[in-house]
């Protein structure tokens, strides 16, 4: 069982490259001037859905990405949390591959950088867990 540290973790703020995500630190992400304090989905057109919840909390399943997948991304960048506590369901990579969707899962600070690098170079979506 994965043990996730609580809010005692040091906040992370990556050296953000140009892109729609302006900043990230534990529990907060700023996208195009708007700050969110709950997990978010970012669609290929740049729209943001806040208050994103997963059926199993720290496990990401295909069903948790239904709204994002409806916009047909080529790539989904997943921020797995400050300490990387959100895990991918065992079958998620293979199921997305069957749909010709690449998934990149990294701790959120790194995922923000990856997302900003990839955004605008194709149909890139993002799913970001902001805390542990």
* Order of secondary-structure elements: EEEEEEHEEHEHE
Please write the CATH class name of the domain at 38-128.
Alpha Beta
Spans of at least 5 consecutive residues with low confidence = 6-14
CATH architecture grouping of the domain at 38-128: 3-Layer(aba) Sandwich
Query: Mean pLDDT, as a whole number?
Result: 90
Structural class: alpha/beta
Spatial strand order of the main sheet:
5-4-10-7-9
**Termini separation (Å)?**
15 Å
Q: With helices defined by DSSP (H or I, 4 residues minimum), what is the helix count?
A: 3
Kindly report the oligomeric state of this protein: single chain
The CATH homologous superfamily name of the domain at 38-128 equals: MTH938-like
Query: How is the biggest beta sheet arranged?
Result: 5 strands, mixed
Q: In which range does the helix fraction lie? A: 10-25%
3D architecture notes:
With 132 residues, the protein is an alpha/beta fold. It has a domain at 38-128: 3-Layer(aba) Sandwich (Hypothetical Protein Mth938, Chain: A), CATH 3.40.1230. Helix content is 17%, strand content 27%. The longest helix is centred in the C-terminal third of the chain and has 11 residues, at 108-118. The chain is globular, with a radius of gyration of 13 Å. The two termini are 15 Å apart.
List the helices and strands and how they pair.
Layout: E1 21-25, E2 28-31, E3 34-36, E4 40-42, E5 48-49, E6 59-60, H1 66-69, E7 75-79, E8 87-88, H2 92-98, E9 102-106, H3 108-118, E10 124-128
Parallel strand pairs: 6-8, 7-9, 7-10
Antiparallel strand pairs: 1-2, 2-3, 4-5, 4-10
